[in-house]
Amino acid sequence: MSLKLHQRPALESGDPNQFAVRMEFVPNLDSGFATPEEDLSWGRMQIWVAGRNLCEHVDRSEVRKAVEWYLLPVMEWLTESWDLLLHEQRPPVSNAGESAWQSLSETNRPKRFERAGNWDTAADEAHTLWTSRHCLRASRFGGLFPDVVVRRLRDEVEFSWGEAPQVGAPDGFRFLHGSGTTRVTPDAVAGPLFDVLRQAVEALVEQQPQSNRLLALRQQVAGIASADRQISRTAVLAGLGATPGNWLNRWQKLRNKLETECSGYKESIKRWFEPEEGNRLCVAGSCEAAVMFGSASPTLTESDVLLIATRLVRSSGKKPPTKWTALANEPQPLQAGESPWTDGYRLAQEWRAKAGMRHKRDGAVDVEEHLESLGVTFEDIELDEATTAGLAVQPEQGAPHIFVNRRNPCCEFPSGKRFILAHELCHLLHDRAHGRNLAMISGPWAPRDLEKRANAFAAALLMPPELLKKGLHSDDDLEFEGLLVLAKRLHVSTDALAHHLANCNLISEATRDVLLAQLVNRQAWTRKVRRLRDFA
């Protein structure tokens, strides 16, 4: 004979040092304010990530280990949001923070939705809908839950959290873990979450076997493990376009076109575009093409997507150069808590020594010549979407490629293109895993920490700090004309040089700001002169 609901031990699964969840049904001492199913589901919940119990809080001066409320709405929310929760990457409106919680906190402000005196209803709605499927508090229905945001971020699931006020909280109520972020493999999240969810639903159904609501939920939970959902999950992971309702159609359309235009690359298409078999709860492992598109601009056109996809597939036919294989064999992923800028500078210095990079007599670094010596193929492509700067591709068994979008504003001058090439080199060297394909699009929607590190790497590679120190002794040594001369000598942009000098503590931030202001004024004057000439 099975135990009654409140006699059952707590349902728990997972590793608290990675991800774990715990649910326990307890008697509702103040029932009658909800449906019978919800009253039955009254219980306690704990969510653990990276050794932290995010539900731990202080209430009326007492530390409590779990939140206590109706658990049925939480279970329904997890079931309904499952595929988007574990596969959708891009935050709404803009990629405005290092984590999803930070990005939402930054964009959830009236100024973000005001457009020339009008309210941007579409952006506001996109923000609300994204929040409803990724924020734990969307399931609280009056309860006091931690402000936790869950989303996919490339090959991992990101948990980020902070402390934002919520309606109904008594004075002094607060969660104990402040703000933070951590990333866990999809397998480590999906398995434990599904186990507890399935067991909790079964326990409720045993108590109310005639409830249509609970029977429907049990069927929906069982459907999570259906292999048929992997194609739609892959489409969510790719996120082609701004509207989730179109993602599956656009993904299938891309596959059909790709198989027609690259008919001789069937195995490559499968490696890049299909998830590994085995896990029926989520897309994990490979499928790097979908991972890449999911962190690209939502305004990529169909022709852009097809162009990028064909470059991915056709890049797999070239064997990796011997020199590249020998040198680029130690990728160093960015660790949580590391400064992207510090790490990027360090990696550039180490790479210069390892690869034996030399600079010209004037101090300039020929990054094109360096890439050619390594056997890295680089070429221009032209996308309709101008904010995308470049694309780094490293097939598992193939040669490294860099594609530069000539329509990106940085490519207006050779110095900007050279910076993009150095930036993409960092992605090739360090943002890949052994035995896996790499595809990374650089742009405003890419992971901010990886983009910052690649920018720092490019700056330190093209403008070695030790060379800059030889010509500068104090802020007084660099005026605007001197900045122009130094930038020209190094073949870099003046704004990149000014920022880099400040980051290396060779000039003060105040001096940098003055130099950048002078640069803006000069550019404005140049544009004005050009307009007058065109008019004449």
Distance between the terminal alpha carbons, to the nearest Å?
A: 94 Å
**Helix content estimate:** 40-55%
Contiguous low-pLDDT stretches (5 residues minimum) are: none
Going by helix content, strand content and strand pairing, the class is: alpha+beta
Give the amount of beta strand, in percent.
5-15%
Radius of gyration: 26 Å
Number of strands: 17
The total count of helices amounts to 21
Biggest beta sheet attributes: 5 strands, antiparallel
Shape, principal axes of CA atoms: globular
**Average pLDDT value?**
89
Q: Concise description?
A:
With 536 residues, the chain is an alpha+beta fold. The chain has helices spanning 36-40, 72-87, 100-107, 110-113, 121-134, 186-207, 212-223, 230-238, 247-261, 266-273, 288-293, 302-314, 322-327, 340-355, 367-374, 414-430, 448-462, 465-471, 480-490, 494-503, 509-535, and strands spanning 11-15, 19-25, 42-49, 52-53, 57-59, 62-64, 67-70, 114-115, 118-119, 147-153, 156-162, 174-175, 180-184, 377-381, 390-394, 401-405, 438-442.
Describe this structure in words.
- There is one protein chain.
- The protein is of the alpha+beta class and 536 residues long.
- The protein is built from 21 helices and 17 strands.
- The strands form five sheets. Strands 1, 2, 3, 4 and 7 form a five-stranded antiparallel sheet that branches. A four-stranded mixed sheet has the order 14-16-15-17, with helices on both faces.
- Strand 10 (147-153) and strand 11 (156-162) form a beta hairpin.
- Helix 9 (247-261) crosses helix 12 (302-314), helix 16 crosses helix 17 (448-462) and helix 20 runs antiparallel to helix 21 (509-535).
